[in-house]
Amino acid sequence: MPKLGMEPIRKTALVKATIMEIGRAGSLDVTVGQIAKRAGMSTALAHHYFGGKEQIFLAAMRHILSLYGAEVRGALAAARTPEARLEAILLASFSATNFRREVVSAWLNFYVLAQTVPGARRLLRVYQRRLHANLTHALRPMAGAGAPPLAEAVGALIDGVYLREALSERPSDGRASVAMVQSYLATELKGLSI
Amino acid sequence: MPKLGMEPIRKTALVKATIMEIGRAGSLDVTVGQIAKRAGMSTALAHHYFGGKEQIFLAAMRHILSLYGAEVRGALAAARTPEARLEAILLASFSATNFRREVVSAWLNFYVLAQTVPGARRLLRVYQRRLHANLTHALRPMAGAGAPPLAEAVGALIDGVYLREALSERPSDGRASVAMVQSYLATELKGLSI
DNA sequence: TTTTTTGTTGATTGACGAGTCAATAAACTT
DNA sequence: AAGTTTATTGACTCGTCAATCAACAAAAAA
User: Fold this and answer.
1) Is the CB of A85 under 7 A from strand D?
2) How far is the C-alpha of A53 from the C-alpha of B103, rounded, in Å?
3) Which of A104, B82, B122, B167 has a C-alpha 20 to 30 A away from that of A61?
């Protein structure tokens, strides 16, 4: 009994299932069969809607990225001062969501994919540019012309801290990560006015 | 015509071939057959010496790590002042070697593997501890008791800068990476004495 | 010299997996 | 009512691959 308009439902189900399976496996070593099964359909249907495995993966990455983007926008909307803007970006970047196993796994494998798959590389660029733009905007009032290079450094620091926290033994602590980046920035900004 | 004492020769050949193949594929999606072929032997022999695919991968990771360690030690040996120590660590971390395609690929996949394979996680810990110890030692004269947490931040910054540089479009520029971390440190250390 | 250890591979096994196809069925169009 | 589009799947193809085995060869030990 084919109900019409299934395409978006099936596609989101597949994307969610893909992210869950990547989290379970810790890698992209996931079969279309596993994804389809978790999404409650046949492998043939998964192929029907996405055409191939790589496109399923890319859709999943796009989804992760859009979740992160929404989180940042949401936090940013309520921020009035530059300091609040910065904190909003950091809180969103180190939120509990981003430390969930599936999300960590997605990001790490995203980096691997970005080496060779043009689509993944493009998505990574989108993330990096957006982060850089947000940081520059927030830092401009404090750092003026020094904002762009400082944003570069803070962006790298965020990625590095995330990487370490995500791969640490203990359950990841977003608050500590935020504090670390903030203390770095505090000194850095103080330095500017000397 | 079996010459004796082949084991170490075969093993190093396999490790090198593994790293090259990982670089070629950009992932761990590499067959034992490809590795064995590049190393000039049969798949059966690869299994004979290593027992399985995972052990080949771990040996390759160990090799990458030992190369990096040797590079750091070499640079550190010549450094007399704390500043020179720091620079040595940075130069080694952002050397051309570490930006070669195979090495980048090995590191990225290493992170992925560290999520699920205990052996890989252990190796990652070794790298992190060693870096932290080296940084703390170099920073102690300048930062005193503040050295350990500062070393933590610098370590994360190094990883983050490496990640970005390794995945950037343009050929990676080690010198710029070193400069970025150094300028961060300069401000940070100046801040301490205020 | 027999035996054991070390090196080596072709061939095979057994399993899995991506993608295709033909077929079925319900809904929507004309 | 006939035709078209959308949804859906079981079965199949074709390929790959990790791991094992049996067998051969040469050096070292006994």
Assistant:
1) no
2) 27
3) B122
Q: Count CA atoms within 13 Å of residue A166 on its CB side.
A: 32
Which helix (H) or strand (E) covers residue A159, if one does?
helix A147-166
Q: What is this structure's pTM?
A: 0.95
Measured between beta carbons, the chain A residues lying within 8 angstroms of B156 are 157, 160-161, 163-164, 180
HSE toward the beta carbon, residue A151, CA cutoff 13 A: 23
Residue B185 buriedness (CB in 10 A; 0-12 / 13-18 / 19+): buried
CB interface of B with A, residues 143-182, below 8 Å: 152-153, 155-161, 163-164, 167, 180
CA distance B72 to B93: 8
In chain A the first and final C-alpha atoms are separated, in Å, by 73
Which of B112, B124, B125, B194 best tests the A interface by mutation, with the highest count of A CBs <10 A?
B112
How many other CB atoms are found less than 10 A from the CB of residue A130?
15
For residue range A115-148, list pLDDT tens digits in order: 999 999 999 999 999 999 999 999 999 999 999 9
Do residues B21 and B44 lie in contact, with contact meaning Cβ atoms separated by under 8 Å?
no
pLDDT tens-digit map of B11-22: 999 999 999 999
- Does residue A47 approach strand C to less than 7 Å at its CB? yes
Contact B106, B61 (CB under 8 A): yes
Instruction: For residues B3 and A33, give the distance between their C-alpha atoms in angstroms, rounded to a whole number.
Output: 47
Inform me whether the C-beta atom of residue B17 falls under 8 Å from chain A C-beta atoms: no
Nearest Cβ partner of B116 from A26, A152, A188? A26
